[in-house]
Structures are given as C-alpha cells and as structure tokens.
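tool_call predict_complex ligand=6OD
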Amino acid sequence: MTSAGVVRNFVGGQFVESGELFDDINPVDGSVAARVHEADESIVDSAVRAARKALDGPWSRLGAPQRAALLRRIADVIEARFDEFVAAEVADTGKPVSLARQIDVARAAANFRAFADLVSATGLDSFLTELPDGRRALNYALRKPLGVVGVIVPWNLPLLLLTWKVAPALACGNTVVVKPSELTPATATLLAEVITEAGVPDGVYNVVHGFGAGSAGAHLTVHPGIDGITFTGESSTGSTIMAAVSPRVRPVSFELGGKNAAIVFADADLKRAVDTLTRSVFTNTGQVCLCTERVYVQRPVFDEVVAALAERAAALRLGRPEEAETTTGPLISTEHREKVLGYYRLAEETGAQAVVGGAVPRLGAGLDGGAWIEPTLWTGAGNDNRLLREEIFGPVAALVPFDTEDEAVALANDTSYGLAATVLTTDLDRGHRVAGRMRVGISWVNTWFLRDLRSPFGGSGLSGIGREGGEHSLHFYSEPTNVCVEL
Ligand code: NAD
Ligand code: 6OD
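tool_result ok
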C-alpha cells in the first residue's frame, strides 16, 4: 500500500490508483511522507458497490461467533505488525513514538478484541407475551446489520478512531467504506492489508482517500448506497454531513468537537491534580477531542496550581518522535498552526497573560519547516473571551479562579459544547455530585482519558449525536427485527 511512499485506495480487495495525487505531509519537518491517490466519484461509487456486494455475499452467512473470531485475528495481525503501524502513524502525525505505541496502535487491537467479546456475549430482547384474551406469543428480536456504513474520521488519533468504529460495524455484520483524513491516510490503508491477511472477505472493508467538500468525503455522504454514516470530526463538518444525508433519511452517529473543562477544588491532592492536568491539556499536543482547554481553580489554590502547571508545561520536551525524551510533537499541519496562533494573538489583544509559552519555538536541526508551537497557558481571560468559548485544538488552556461549587459548575457548563469534564477533589461526595452535574457525555473524577470500552462515549450539545461504546455501538451498527410467534 505505502510502497515507495504511495498510498492507494482499497476497493473490493484491490488497491486502486486514480489520476489525481496529493501530498501527505510529515508535520515534523514539512517533508512529503507519501503521495496519495485521491478517490473521485467513480472510485467512491465502486467502493460502495463492492461493499454492497460483500454485504449480500459470504459475509452475510457468517454468524456472530465467526465474525468475532475474524475480529480477534485482525487484532493478532495488528500486534504482529505493531511497529509498521507505529511508523505509519508517526510519519503522518509527528506524534512521539511512545504515544503512538501506548495509545494509538495498542487501542486499535483492543478495539477489535472488545467488540469481538461483546458481540459474542450480547443477546437481544425476548418476551413471553400473555394477552388478557388468553392468547400467548413469543416475541424475540434478531440483530440485522445496518448495511453499508460510511466511516469518516479525523487526523488526531487516526487508527484509534477508525478502529473504534470499524470494529463494532464489522462485529454487527456490516460492510464499510472508510474515508480517513487527507492528512493521515496511512494506517487506514495498512489496515486493509491486515484485514485481508486475517481472512475477511473482499469488499467488507474499503478505503477511499481524499478531502471533504467536493472530494471523497462529500461523494460518500451523498451516495444513495450508503445506509448510515458514522463520523468523528469538527462540529461544523457534522452539520454539513447531516444536511447531506438528510434527503435519504439515513442514521448518523457523530463524535464532534469539545471545549472541555477541568475543575480543581482546593481540597484536591494538588500533585495528582497537576499530573492529571498535564496529561489532559498537553497529550498529543492538545489534539485530543477530550483535552482540557478550560481550567477552573478554587481561589485559595489558584496561584499554586498555575505555577505548578506552568512548570510542567515548560518541562515538556518538543522534539523528533523517535527520541526517547520527546513528550510533545508538532501540530498536525502549518495550516492548523495558523489557526491556533490566531488564538495566541487573540490572547494578546484581549489582555490575557501567557504564563508560559505563547510563541513558535525555534528548534533548529531541520525542524523549522514543521508545525511546532509552544505549549501555552493563559490567565486573565473570562468565560466571555473567545479563548474560553471556541475549540482551539492545541496545547493550550486558560485558567480561571472560582469561589463556590455552584459557581464552578455554572462556569464549566457555560458552553455550547458538551463532551468531557474532569473534577479534581479528595471529597468523593463532591466528586460524584459535581461529575453528575456536568452537561457532558463523559465526566472523570481525579483522572482523565481512562477508558472502559463498554461504557457510553459521546457528547451533548455541539459535541455530538448518539453514543458509541459497548452495547451503544451495537445499537447504532445494527437494527433489531422483532419476530412475534403466536403459541
Ligand atoms: P474535520 O471535521 O475537518 O474532518 C474530519 C473528517 O471529515 C476528515 O476525514 C475530512 O476529510 C472529512 N470531511 C471534511 N469535510 C467534509 C464534508 N463536507 N463531507 C464529508 N467529509 C468531510 O475534523 P479534523 O480537523 O480532521 O479533526 C479535528 C476535529 O475532530 C476537532 O474538532 C475534534 O474535537 C474532533 N474530534 C472529535 C472526537 C470525538 O470523539 N468527539 C474525536 C476526535 C476528534
Ligand atoms: O477513546 C475513545 O474511544 C475515543 N473515541 C476517543 C476520542 C478521542 C478524541 O480525540
């Protein structure tokens, strides 16, 4: 697939070229990681047709235990080719090798195993019906796949987010056409080799490359052969996709943007709180939808938390992904850096103080063509400042003092997003109470991004529609048919 740095589409079990190629840029130094074949309308159409044919072919005759066995085999092959996946993910994103190993690729294998286990163990409703007139019936539900599912995913955790959707879709017997981000096409394509090697029939997993509007993404969303769309990305893109599928009334599952808050109470274990914030603000250079960008700190410990977090931010090591001491990679692209730098300028214009960072670092050694940016913390901005209202998606947070629990809850909930929150306290009653009052899909207490793949995942408000994870994924990727047998 990526031989000689060329990335192709994957349709009906074959790698497919097109007339148009675009560059896949390595954000570490701006070099070209690969040349990518962009899928035009006819390639997208052939991918959807291949998926439809596979849906009605031998794949449809496999039961859940057989599909689960294939999913486990996929996980085994990912692990056997672990280093290839790490290298591909790192070349596309510039993230530290350690991060790609611990989060991205490890979770890809875990996603396939989790949904193999789940689909093997989960039943559906059955009722013995006894009507007042004496008739009796057995009602039971069969799980049917949704059909051909379009899977559109972003660049920040490319393989993790792709497999989070592909694994349950295949577990439920669907076929998929996936559209990875134009910025990170490699691991979705490598997965095509793995899926074939694991013995999954041709056409079950297809990959089309390209951009959104006017390209593969948009072609997929308007294709009449698509039975549902699962999407992770920006809220505004979710809105465009919803409009594109609405004439055909297809189901959508959306995991969208966030403007996540952390609340630090004065009774928190401050060392643990600062450790947690260091992860929640700066992991993956702040490019995780769950990352904290607003930190509300109770006034008696405000200065101490600001100083300690600034010290941790200053100690982050920006550098080449393969160097052991590197903690922090570049942003995904220089275009994205322009957007993030717009907020650095906004901070200056609105009188917010950068207690650390605030600029583009000069790293030298061939890295200056990359998308590097300094991890940055601001004070002196309030909830009315766009710094605290808009998703920035960089290694940044604004810290704001508060006095009472009610005030902290009101500040944290004062947003149009609703993805995740983190509550830091040693008072467990308060932890449960405040976590439950957060208007979000995921509320953590004294931790961040600790995941159980059986639990519901998704967002409220602008952060999404629906929940995936565990049985919630099975609900989206399948449709129950009720059978009623009079006894
Ligand atoms: P994006 O919305 O720009 O792109 C995501 C995907 O959609 C890409 O594959 C892109 O090519 C495609 N796309 C863009 N326009 C399209 C269109 N008109 N039709 C069809 N497809 C289209 O998002 P991004 O910049 O790649 O990713 C960052 C965003 O993703 C952030 O907002 C982040 O919060 C969000 N995100 C959310 C979650 C979550 O679970 N809630 C997880 C990761 C990222
Ligand atoms: O952990 C997951 O399952 C998940 N969907 C994480 C999303 C992270 C956002 O960037």
